Amino acid sequence: MEPRLAVDSSTSEKYFRIASISVAFYDYAITIPAEWRFYRSQPSIFRISLACVLFILIRYVSALVMILSNYGYFSTGFTQQTCQHYYLATSAFKVVQTMISQVILGVRTFNIARRDRRIGIALLLLYLLSILVEWFTDLYHRIQPTAVVVDGNCTPINSGKTLSAWFYYLVVMLYDLVMLTVSTAHLLRYNPLSSRTIGTSASALCL
Fold first, then answer.
1. Inter-axis angle of helices 87-112 and 164-189, to 10 degrees?
2. How many helices (H) and strands (E) does the chain have?
3. Between 47 and 162, whose confidence is greater?
4. pLDDT higher at 55 or 139
5. d(Cα 103, Cα 123) in Å, to the nearest integer?
6. Distance (Å, rounded) from C-alpha 153 to C-alpha 79?
7. Cβ burial, residue 171 (10 Å; 0-12/13-18/19+)
8. What pLDDT is recorded for position 40?
């Protein structure tokens, strides 16, 4: 019974991976025109905005993470020796991808908070603490030869009893929750129908 469940689980994982690759490729293909327009809106190739830089990084680092992860999973040519040199790449680039997405959330939150210096310092400290914990929890017990080669594919695992990957995703979610809370709090303070706005609009109508 247990071997059958293992086979079913492996088959389901393959289907989910193929489905995620298909969705990602479709999303990439339909957004190429918008991406090109975004590039053309920049002043020059040497003067691109921070938003454009972050867009390029999150778009193509995410693609690289997906390629590395699925190549290791679907490949049939790995040996235990070659896998030891490969399996850390997916874990490392996953953290890099998370760091980029958190920078995007942090910049967005900082702008919503009207670039308040104290909030900016707090967000920066939270970011540095988060990435430190993320690097540790993601690579914890993976610096040892714990890669698994099954039928020629290469996938990393946690060798320790502690599920450090669980802590990694917990830290990521907590960071996102803090960004969401700070952004929402400042958005609720902003009232587009304030007396000043109404007065300005009424003056404009009178003119």
1. 20
2. 8, 2
3. 47
4. 55
5. 10
6. 8
7. buried
8. 93
Residues 6+ apart with CB under 8 A from 18: none
Please name the residue that has the structure tokens 């490949």: 75
Q: What is the pLDDT of residues 32-72, one digit of tens each?
A: 999 999 999 999 888 899 999 999 999 999 999 999 888 88
Packing angle between helix 117-139 and helix 87-112, nearest 10 degrees?
Answer: 170
Do 95 and 131 contact (CB within 8 A), yes or no? yes
With a CB cutoff of 8 Å and minimum separation 6, the contacts of 158 are: 140, 141, 142, 146, 164, 165
Residue 130's Cβ-count burial label (10 Å; 0-12, 13-18, 19+) is: buried
C-beta separation of 66 from 21 below 8 A: yes
pLDDT in tens, 115-129: 999 999 999 999 999
**Mean pLDDT, the chain, as a whole number?**
82
SS3 193: coil
Residue entry with tokens 């327009």:
37
Which range has the worst mean pLDDT, 67-71, 72-76, 85-89? 85-89
The alpha carbon dihedral of 176, 182, 184, 190 has a sign of negative
Nearest Cα to Cα of residue 115 among 43, 58, 182, 196:
182
d(CA 207, CA 202): 9
Asked whether 162 and 138 are in contact (CB, 8 A), the reply is no
